[in-house]
Amino acid sequence: MVIEVILFGYFTVCVSGDGVADVVLSCTLVEEGVGLGGMGGGASFRRTPATLVFRDVAVASDESLETLTPFVPPSVPDLDLLLFEAKVSSVEIPNADLLLHADCNEQEVMCEISSYSPRGSRESSDPAYFMASLNVEGIEFSTVLILQTLTVEKDHSTLIHNKLGLPLSQSGTLLTEVIFLVFSHIKSVSVPLRGDVLLNCGFKQLQIPLSQEVAIEWRLQHRGKGRRVLDMKTRLDDAEGSTVVHAERRGSSVDAAKVVGEGNASLTLSKLKVLDEGTYICTVSLGLFHAQQVIRLHIIQPPHVSLSKEKLVLKSETRQTLSCHCNNYYPLDVQMEWLSLSLTDTEPAVFPDQGSLSSHRHHGDGTFSLSSHFTVPPSVSPGTKITCRVSHTALDAPLSVSVVVESPEPDSYMWVLGFLIITVLFFYQVMR
Ligand SMILES: *[C@@H]1O[C@H](CO)[C@@H](O)[C@H](O)[C@H]1NC(C)=O
Fold this sequence. Notes:
Elements: E1 4-9, E2 11-17, E3 20-32, E4 45-58, E5 83-87, H1 96-102, E6 109-116, E7 129-136, E8 142-149, E9 174-184, E10 188-192, E11 197-199, E12 202-205, E13 213-222, E14 225-235, H2 239-242, E15 244-247, E16 252-253, H3 256-262, E17 267-269, E18 278-286, E19 289-300, E20 304-307, E21 312-313, E22 321-329, E23 334-341, E24 349-350, E25 356-357, E26 361-362, E27 368-375, E28 385-392, E29 399-406, H4 412-431
Parallel strand pairs: 4-5, 5-9, 10-19, 21-29
Antiparallel strand pairs: 1-6, 2-3, 3-4, 6-7, 7-8, 8-9, 9-12, 11-17, 13-14, 13-18, 14-15, 16-17, 18-19, 20-22, 22-27, 23-24, 23-28, 25-27, 26-27, 28-29
The protein binds 2-acetamido-2-deoxy-beta-D-glucopyranose (NAG).
């Protein structure tokens, strides 16, 4: 049976002593339907409230948290309540202080727990395993934990959870320990075309290694298609002699020394192309255990914006057109607006008739170009500034290009005529 727990709630922080705190998460347990596997589409879920308590999370000593009482389980154990108690002293949660502050900052914490079967393990094995994934809304915190139940001495008085069938502590909590975790400091990143990026992914494990063999796999998922970017297998005790890497994308790398030394499985991608955009999945497998992190990579490229004319002189007999070109930008969406600012205006005004857009041009490097063609209304007075304003996700602020309308010059044949008259007059005088 697959049990999945999805927990939504806020963290509560209870400082229990010097430099340690209990983090209490109010949650919802969701059990997935039987036999559908992890990703079963249309699976039905049953939701039950649950609580996850991290015991003795290390707190920086300068932390000025309001002193609260440590987490106290109900005095009369309730065998229907789902109270997960997790020891984090052996595997510290990176940036756990962000969890401590989430509650104060009113950031919602999304937490998902599922019953977990290590590879090749039999069902109903002892110990039991759970996977908890934590995400804090609005900040870059994402961690997946593997919890292993602690052994409880069983006798006739041992409390057994009604639903899970697992032995509980005297106070009715399910005692677990974090034995493995995979985390990331980023959930989503936007990088310019041809730039480089480091997609963050790290892992931690119990001091007693679960295995000496670690496998890192980075996959890219985009618009329903998936492909492998890089995979690496190495041994924690012999990185040099055992590392095998397959980099399917040119210019992708994971530092084997960092994997072994720091549990840092971050992926470096260089010379980014539009095709590199998508959802990256970092899977770390350590012996029988594996866990993932998901990071979104967006490629952004601001448009080059230019006007078709540097000088705009009003002519009475012909309509003038101006074109605004946005070239080689990504992604597709761009807004172009024509504005006028006459000498008497204080604020630019949007022209009622915004002209017409060309169709998008798609370049070989995946970028787009678009032009807007605008007919200058004859009513525009000299001195008016005509602006093409462009908004695009890759631009911090809209980009503007402008031209100032100049008054019509006297037509040149008038000069010729004037010159001729003067010449004729001059000769007339001379000849007389
Ligand atoms: C991995 O190392 C890089 C520096 O090379 C650092 O920026 C990043 O934060 C590290 N990631 C983890 C998960 O430790």
